[in-house]
Batch of 4 targets.
Target 1
Amino acid sequence: NAYVTKLNQILGDKLEGETIEAIAVKAKEDGDGPLFNQAAQHFNHSFYFAAMKPNAPGSMPAELETALTKDFESVDAFKTAFMDKAVGNFGSGWTWLVYDSADTKLKIVNTGNAGMPEGTQRPVLTMDV
């Protein structure tokens, strides 16, 4: 709520109709640190909490399991790599499972503070660290 409230104060009616991701990207491109921090943290937290569901199924979608096995050798190897990457993320930030369309692979990336996946990376899963 704090990120949304502060973001609305900064934005006013600028960029009305844009997605939160587009606002964060534009703010970063423009070098607007305060706007980027609020917009990116809003995006990151919304993405993070949207992945949590009560009574979620006990198994992951078959397509995801296949992709994780292809790019990490196994789901267990992915889990280990993801946790290792998260533990190694110094300070405040995020660890992401992303799909990188540049090489059509799943990857694990860390971002600091309000950082979010960029360019050809599309978020699949994240952890706030």
Target 2
Amino acid sequence: MVYERPNYMGYQYFLRRGEYPDYQRWMGYSDSIRSCRMIPQYRGSYRMKIYERENFGGHMMEFMDDCESVQDRFRYPDIHSCHVDGYWIMYEQPHYRGRQYFLRPGEYRRYSDWGSMNPRIGSFRRIMDYC
């Protein structure tokens, strides 16, 4: 994962092994990279429970696979909290586009816990390949 600002802040980008001659190749919003971290291998089940409200309230839906369009599968337009097993990337827009958010295993009681300014999530996928 690479980050636009120091201390793993700002826009986040998941980069697979390869060459990126310019920031547009990784769908970047700018050419600024100020911090990065490796994603360790995960050897467990991949599961995400998403909730309509913060603190795990409201309607819940469980996923064990990638979701190309949250709107098509989860009747609510926003995700306010989630519980995560495995490593996942959330995207602001459907079809794995827009701003990215890296989620490690754990509980996220509100969308700001994963670094978002709003609860709008359009898609998400598991990080299973590291190359």
Target 3
Amino acid sequence: EAAAAGLEEAKARGFFEQQLKEYQERRDVLLAAFDKLGLKYFLPEGSYFVLVDISRLKFPDDYPFPETVRGRGRDFKACWFMALEVGVSAIPVSEFYCEEHCNIGENYARFGFCKDVDTLKEAGHRLQSLSKYLS
């Protein structure tokens, strides 16, 4: 009964419409950063994550990855590199695949836009420093 009352209140107060508007704004802030870099992505249709094609990202061959990262997929290394060098975290897509198929996701990173607009603007600004690592 409490859940039903909560849904009725949410509807009466326009909660879902407001949430949709806010997440579209947040999504657009992050996507603008990828557009500026020329990185392709899949437009999300039902979540607050966007899959970005990171195949053009070239980190140095001699980058000092820790032992726990060296045996992982390319996307895992790219996400580690971005977190340390740019200060923006992403989720390696290969983590969602079984071991025998993890290579399917190695050219993608998953970025969340479930943050406040100022944080996303800062992330977009930081992401621009990736331009020197793009082929």
Target 4
Amino acid sequence: VFALIVFACLVGEGYTNVPSSSNLFCIFNHNEDACRYGIGIGVLAFLACIFFFMVDVYFPQISNTTDRKYLVLADLGFSGLWTFLWFIGFCFLTNQWAWTRAEDVHVGADSARAAITFSFFSIFSWVSDAW
């Protein structure tokens, strides 16, 4: 859910333009990489959650203990990696938001803050998943 919120905030209002131009730029200090990173990890986290949910649904039907072990280790490894990536994303978005000038933000400030906040919450949800 947190990944969806981050993704939706960045896609919905993460890009804006000045009234005199039709060129879109990222609301985070005009840094396109900040928006791309948030969108990328949000989409991949959501898809991974769907995949691991399906694995959990079919887990009792998997009789091979080696396959079960590898699936559990994949879930653990992915959760650990994604905890780290969400931490990097939170730090990156927060840093870029701190350097954003107030006059560059006409619409989307709340979405930017929501993306930062839910990136922070995602760290703890992935840690708890790994635990």
